[in-house]
Structure formats: C-alpha cells, structure tokens
Amino acid sequence: MSLWGCSACEWLFPNCSLFLSLFLTGAAQFAVQSQNLVADNVSVVEGETAIISCRVKNNDDSVIQLLNPNRQTIYFKDVRPLKDARFQLVNFSENELRVALSNVSLSDEGRYVCQLYTDPPQEAYADITVLIPPGNPIIESREDIVSEGNETEITCTSIGSKPAATIRWMKGDKELPGRSKVEVTYDRMYTVTSWLKLTVAREDDGVPVVCIVDHPAVKDFQAQKYLEVLYKPEVKIVVEFPVGLTREGENLELTCQIKGKPEPQQVNWVKVDDDVPSHAVITGPDLFIENLNKSYNGTYRCVASNSVGESYDDYILYVYDALTTTLKPTTTTTTTTISATTSPPDIIQDAAPSTEAAAHDSRAGAEAQRSVDHAVIGGVVAVVVFAMLCLLIVLGRYFARHKGTYFTHEAKGADDAADADTAIINAEGGHNNSDEKKEYYI
Ligand SMILES: *[C@@H]1O[C@H](CO)[C@@H](O)[C@H](O)[C@H]1NC(C)=O
Ligand SMILES: *[C@@H]1O[C@H](CO)[C@@H](O)[C@H](O)[C@H]1NC(C)=O
Ligand SMILES: *[C@@H]1O[C@H](CO)[C@@H](O)[C@H](O)[C@H]1NC(C)=O
Ligand SMILES: *[C@@H]1O[C@H](CO)[C@@H](O)[C@H](O)[C@H]1NC(C)=O
Ligand SMILES: *[C@@H]1O[C@H](CO)[C@@H](O)[C@H](O)[C@H]1NC(C)=O
Ligand SMILES: *[C@@H]1O[C@H](CO)[C@@H](O)[C@H](O)[C@H]1NC(C)=O
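A: This is the predicted complex of the input protein with 2-acetamido-2-deoxy-beta-D-glucopyranose.
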C-alpha cells in the first residue's frame, strides 16, 4: 500500500494505508458498473504530436495507467517508467491521464491501452493511426500540343502516402472524371495514378487542367498543366469600301480577317467558277478592285490554311448601276431611295448563301431609308414654321392697325388683378408700358 504515497491522506489519517485499502476494496465492488473509462482513437501526421487521453467518469481514486501496443507501461499515474522522452504528461487528475507523444513515426502506430485498477481491471483503447502525406503530384500529358478534335491523355501520380490519396480532375472550373489505379509499395505506402482522357476543342487552348490530390494529411494539393490546342483558321471577310452600294465605276476593297493556331501562312483570294478580274490587286489578306463593272458579279472567296486545315468565307459581289453625275446621293435623296429600296430584295434572293453580301447591301438600303425619313421630317418642319410666320405677320398687322393700346392695357392689368375693375385701375398706372408694346407691334 506504500505505493499509493498519499501524503495528504497520511496527514489526515495516521493509519492511512489501512484506511485506504479498506475503502478501495469496498468501493471497487460498487465501482465496476458506475466507473466509466474511455479513450479516443487518434490520427496524426508523421512528425507531429499525438495526444492520448484516458478519461474516467466517477473515479473513486482508482489508479490509471497507459500502456503501449507492446503492453509496456508508459505512464503509471503521473510517473513515466518508459525511457522514451517523446512521451510527456499533459494533464493528470483523478479524472484524466493525458499524454502527448511528439515526433510521431510510423512505428508508433498501434493500439494503446488505458487501464483502470479496479477489480476486475477496466481497459479502453486508443488506436493511433499515422498519416503520411504524398509527395508532390506529378502531372504529364501524352502530347504537348494537340489539334482540335483530337483526343489526348493526361496522367497524374501521387506517390508514397498513407492512406491512399484520391485524385480529382478539373478543366477550367469544370470537374471531369478520370480513371484511377492504387498500388501498394513494399513499405506499405500507396501510389495512386489517375488518367484523364479528353477531346480538345479550340476553346480549350490555354485552359489549365488541374489534378487535385485529396488526402487527410494535406490541403490544397494540386498540379496543373495548360492545354495547347492547334486549330484551323477562322476566316471573316470585311468590306472596307464602299460603305454603301457597290456601283459600277466605283472601287471595292475587301479585307480577310484570319485567326488560327498556328498563324495561317497562306491566304488566297479566288472567284468561284471564274477568274478574279485581271486588274484586281491582292496584297496579303486584302483584295482591291478598281472601276467595278457588272461583269465582275460573282462569289469572291478568301481561303486560309495552316497545318491543321483550311477554311474560307464568301462575299457575293453584285454591281449596281452607276449614279449619273447630276444625281449624287448627297444632293438628291429621292433617287438614292428608289434604287436602294427597290433593288436589295432581288439581291437577297440571288445571293442567298452570302450573309456578308446580304448584310452589307441591306445595311446600305437602311441608310438610304433613314436619309429619306430625315428629308420628309425636314420638309414638314419647314412648312409648319412657314405657316406660323405667316400667322404672326397677319396678327402683327391686325394689332398695328388697332393701335394695340387698349388691348395691351387690359392684358397687362388682367395679369395681376383679381377682377375686371381692378384690372382697369391697375392698367391706368402703366402708360409707359403701353408705349413700349406699341413700338414692338409696328
Ligand atoms: C477506433 O478504431 C478501431 C479500428 O482501428 C475501431 O474498431 C474502433 O471502433 C475505434 N474506436 C472509436 C472510439 O472510434
Ligand atoms: C486538466 O484537466 C482538468 C479537468 O479536465 C482541467 O480542469 C484542467 O484545466 C486541466 N489542466 C491542464 C493543464 O490542461
Ligand atoms: C523525429 O524522429 C526521427 C526518427 O523517427 C528523427 O530522425 C528526428 O530527428 C526526430 N525529430 C525530432 C525533432 O526529434
Ligand atoms: C489528330 O487526328 C488526326 C486524325 O483525326 C491525325 O491525322 C492527326 O495526326 C492528329 N494530330 C495530332 C497532333 O495528334
Ligand atoms: C464593262 O466591261 C465590258 C467588257 O467586259 C465593257 O464593254 C464595258 O465598257 C465595261 N463597262 C464599264 C462601265 O467600264
Ligand atoms: C450583274 O448584276 C447586275 C445587277 O442586276 C445585272 O444587271 C447584270 O446583268 C449582272 N451581270 C452579270 C454578268 O451577271
């Protein structure tokens, strides 16, 4: 009983040991049901500190001890018989024995035992699991550069973790499913490999593909690779000149806008089922035709190609009658309107496949229509203004002939008078005002 070393007890009761042993034997019988020993499992990352806690509810001063997986005593109450200094007492009370184990290694894994010296003794278990984080994920793609529409495969590997990591894939902000394989290495570590197959589009060029490694020992663990996608040219014809209708004798200038990866090396202008007019000037993506002639009607095509493929855009040229020199669109809106509004419907039918030409021509028609509207509005306004001027002159003459004096007096007085009488009284005071009015109307 000297084991118990209860100095406080000895101070209170001279015959302490005897008292204690009697008390404990009696209490133990009763305590089996009511005393309650618990311990929690612990997961800890290798190298960090694990906290093992043995807790007792309603302890009646029974002794608590902690054993390692080989059932060696780590702590007996607050005394550590085991030499391993990595074990340190965190808290010792009658309700808890809490021990910290620092610099945890894989060999520390196992079932730790909390023991309570009751009769029969009670045990609770704390399983320590050591987590080993994976190495940095390795991402590799089968091809560095892929052509649009082709499939590529990206591989991500997470090496040497415990437990096995899981791998997820993101392309931009979209999650994609991969195929995974888990391997156990000789030292009981896990290596996980995941493959992502994807068919690329031109929009994927420059988009990051991210391999995300989920593991309890790491946070935000990922690797990424940017997709590099080749795509055939996108071609668009833009009319630089003229802004309005293409008329005989005028010039035509078209530009071909091209975007592709790699940058297209070749741009060609051709005329479908015909030859481009012999005097047409082609400089890179620009086509320039001077002095348009109706015989140039037809489909002009800009063709661009790169290593991935070839694309084109069409422009349908429709040459309108020339304007006679006296009927310039700026001076005679009516003439412009007639030709612009009547002709385009025919063209739109003729030139059905060319959105370029149709859009261009109808735009010109709409502009002519707008200028006509302006002319009509201008005319109406002019007539109204003229009518009002006439009315003013007629009224002016009328007031001048009647000298205007009396009328002005009444009007002036009425402005600030309550009734007709007051108005006249007020008006009498305002003779100088009436003179001014008279002068104004003459
Ligand atoms: C502790 O882990 C073991 C398996 O290692 C499990 O059987 C037991 O239920 C766990 N105990 C608690 C309290 O979670
Ligand atoms: C030890 O545990 C007791 C009871 O849970 C608590 O009151 C006390 O603050 C703890 N002491 C330390 C140093 O953690
Ligand atoms: C932790 O333990 C390892 C061996 O398991 C040892 O090499 C290392 O020096 C220890 N680190 C510290 C800070 O004690
Ligand atoms: C893409 O696929 C085509 C067949 O669809 C193939 O001819 C071409 O070589 C592939 N390109 C690359 C870069 O793999
Ligand atoms: C248009 O070309 C024809 C021959 O192709 C020619 O006879 C005619 O004079 C030309 N018209 C104009 C306005 O140049
Ligand atoms: C070109 O289009 C104009 C507009 O209608 C038409 O009058 C002319 O006959 C066309 N010329 C050719 C060669 O198709």
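Helices lie at 7-12, 16-34, 333-342, 344-350, 355-401, 405-416, 420-428, 431-441. Residues 1-14, 16-33, 326-370, 403-442 have pLDDT under 50 and may be disordered.
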